[in-house]
Amino acid sequence: MPIGLRTEAIRDDRPEFSSLRAVLFGPYLLVGLSSGEWDMGKQDAVHGLSDWILPVPAHDRLQLVSLTQESCGGGTTFLSGLNASGLDAARLLTMAAPPKLGTNAAAQATFRLVYSDRKAAPPIASREAVVGRVVLLEPFDLPDQVVRHQGAGKGLVISATADVPQDRTASVFRVAEGLDGNPTTVSLEADSTPGCFVHHDCRSGDGVRLVCPANDAERHGAAFRTAASFTLGKGLGRYHPISFTAKGTKRSFLLQPLLSLRDETYTTYFNIGV
Prior knowledge:
By secondary structure, the chain is mainly β. The protein folds into 2 domains: 5-55 and 241-272, no CATH class; 59-234, Trefoil (Acidic Fibroblast Growth Factor, subunit A), CATH 2.80.10.50. It contains 5 helices and 22 strands. It has helices spanning 49-52, 104-108, 127-130, 216-219, 222-227; strands at residues 5-9, 20-25, 28-33, 39-41, 53-55, 64-70, 76-80, 91-92, 94-96, 111-115, 134-139, 147-149, 156-158, 173-177, 185-190, 197-200, 208-211, 230-234, 244-247, 252-257, 266-267, 270-272. The strands form 4 sheets. Strands 1, 2, 3, 4, 5, 19, 20, 21 and 22 form a 9-stranded mixed sheet that branches. Strands 6-10-11-14-15-18 form a 6-stranded antiparallel barrel. The radius of gyration is 20 Å and the shape is elongated. InterPro entries: AbfB_ABD (IPR007934), AbfB_ABD_sf (IPR036195). One of its GO terms (molecular function) is alpha-L-arabinofuranosidase activity.
């Protein structure tokens, strides 16, 4: 018996639920990582599923990374689009405590590197392979969205819906060798504003910002170089072998089998076709 995608309507005759459908792949119920959003928009829920529900490509599975720094207390913190509100809203990047695997926090501390320099993607996103590349950072749990800066001195954000500028120049970063000189670190330079780097100073409490040094003394100072350096490692999140991206009108969803999740929040039904 062939295995394919299909949708099933919710078993509820009330008209307000007539557009709610579950997505299945063979015997697997696919759920979307979400903190409350379930609106897929106007899609063909019967015959055109392959037009808007696409399998995660094999090469994407090896491009997941997490970025860390040492905290002022000596522990490790993770660059994270932490969704503190519990709602699918814009997120401000922060450095967060090490998350438990199988949680929203682990997913939000994982990013897929999307290469924008017209070169072939490396087989795996190791430090050696990505230094010198031009990339966008796509949140693991928000396919098709990207991290973007808001200018010098301001925080980095992720928008949870498609209501963001179409111009992605503020989302492009050059991966440089770590400014701190450590052979395991990288630094992220804004492609739109050369000389400005993603920066987190745990002592100042200013969060993750784009910082442009005011002068050579600041640029070459140990404090700036340390705060603009991150250790690049394997992503905490992983794509299940049966993973899809469902492209909605306002946002896309990462679909995975329900049985593969632990403590992540998700939606089982989607509002499709309205």
